[in-house]
Amino acid sequence: MGENWHNFFKNWVSVLGLVILFLLIITALIGPLIAPFDPDDLEIGRRATPPSTTYWVGTDELGRDVFSRSVTAIRVSLLVGVIAATISTAVGIIVGSMAGFFGGWLDHILMRVTEIFQVIPQFFLAVVLVALFGASVLNIIVAIALLTWPIIARLTRSEFLSLKTRQYVDAAYLGGASNARLIFREILPNALGPVIVSATLLVGRAMLTEAGLSFLGLGDPSRISLGVMLYQSRPFIQIAWWAAVFPGIMIFLAVLSTNLIGDGLNDVINHHLDQDD
Question: Which helix (H) or strand (E) holds 159?
């Protein structure tokens, strides 16, 4: 496996994604320290100021520094992406492992529920949920997790269906291993590779969904996120285009980095599986 990870770091595209994501995470952690201005500081006298040496990427329609707001907002956007993807992955693993391992009527019921969630227009469901229960960061995270867990569930199920017939699983079963041990100690660790790849991609997808909801006015008004910044700058795009471009670039970089990392991880896992075969 070490050789496979060596190949990952030899792939400059995957490394680029890793570097971009690392820089965004560092920015999120130290954002308030590097922000030259208070992100909520209003100053009508400097409203819609173009990028300059003082205001690196300009100010918005209310005179707030766009750079200071962006480096603060990336924290919320990344938080939504990571937590939503984590919850979605956890639910998907539980549902998929139960369905794939036990099969029969339990598999049938769980897969029908999964299909119901998949056939519903996902973004429309997110809009309805957030509109009904309120535009808060927590509600947005829950809504996104509800949208994306079926992807992980179906992938986990397919891995379990393939792995549970392997000889090492039969040997553990004959050795008296319980169902819990077979699931969590024998099968799940070997099924996590493709799941981790999908979970990585879900982080970027969750950030895009949050940005889309915020762009429609369903973002948390009490928290600065990149999506909220896009929504607030929309009516003034002709006079202060930079207020939308810089947050948009940061969303693009975050989604791009997770996809590049996911592609690199996918190559590592596929190469490892080919060696095992």
Answer: helix 137-163
